[in-house]
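RECORD TYPE: inverse folding
INPUT: structure tokens
STRUCTURE:
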């Protein structure tokens, strides 16, 4: 059976994460630890790719590999480490930046630590802590809008790619939560404490499940291979928070 192999990957630790900032769509570089994490990630992902072989008589090529990355610096630098590892191993790859993969915008909290937010917007923060019901943060992207963005990007991806392709998406914790929910067909979004460089790996035998009947419920069509997997970071300590 041929599958579309789809990996959702959170970027490595950034300087903003290190200092506990709600980065949102601001753009900071990877920290020293983040660079180590990205290199560990690259080594792990290389082991998942088919071993290169001599060209066959039919001239068949290796399965296509595509990388899409958020344009924010912490994601781009993570992707660049992966690209360097792939090129050093002579693995052909196509890569592209995608604005749709940016983190969810936290509005007026962007760039602040929670301590700074509570100091500057104490009444708003008190309200957010007192209830789970959604309350608008000025200039912020709402959960509904973020989910629509994730749904739209997933639809675009499934129309662009097919079983036999391998796709790596480098994005951010907030948006990955929405995308995981969309891929699994959930009518709600689950809170997932997504670690830096964590991998979510899905194998899809069909990219048009909406047109299937009984086969929609055949688990051989859809395989969840890895979920929030960051075992490659064993022995690296990461105490940072944020997106």
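DESIGNED SEQUENCE:
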């Amino acid at each position: 059976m041929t599958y579309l192999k789809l990996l959702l990957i959170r970027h490595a630790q950034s300087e903003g994460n290190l200092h506990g900032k709600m980065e949102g769509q601001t753009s900071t570089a990877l920290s020293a630890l983040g660079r180590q994490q990205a290199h560990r990630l690259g080594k792990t992902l290389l082991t998942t790719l088919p071993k290169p072989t001599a060209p066959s008589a039919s001239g068949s090529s290796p399965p296509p590999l595509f990388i899409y990355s958020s344009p924010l610096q912490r994601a781009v630098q993570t992707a660049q480490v992966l690209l360097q590892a792939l090129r050093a191993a002579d693995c052909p790859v196509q890569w592209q930046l995608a604005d749709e993969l940016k983190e969810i915008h936290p509005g007026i909290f962007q760039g602040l630590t929670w301590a700074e937010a509570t100091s500057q917007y104490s009444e708003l923060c008190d309200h957010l802590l007192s209830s789970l019901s959604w309350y608008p943060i000025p200039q912020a992207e709402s959960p509904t809008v973020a989910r629509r963005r994730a749904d739209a990007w997933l639809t675009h991806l499934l129309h662009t790619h097919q079983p036999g392709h391998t796709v790596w998406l480098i994005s951010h914790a907030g948006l990955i939560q929405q995308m995981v929910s969309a891929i699994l067909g959930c009518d709600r979004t689950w809170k997932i404490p997504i670690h830096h460089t964590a991998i979510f790996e899905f194998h899809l035998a069909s990219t048009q499940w909406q047109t299937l009947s009984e086969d929609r419920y055949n688990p051989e069509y859809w395989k969840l291979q890895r979920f929030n997997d960051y075992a490659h970071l064993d022995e690296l300590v990461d105490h940072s928070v944020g997106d």
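NOTES: The beta strands are 4-10, 65-69, 94-97, 166-171, 199-204, 222-229.
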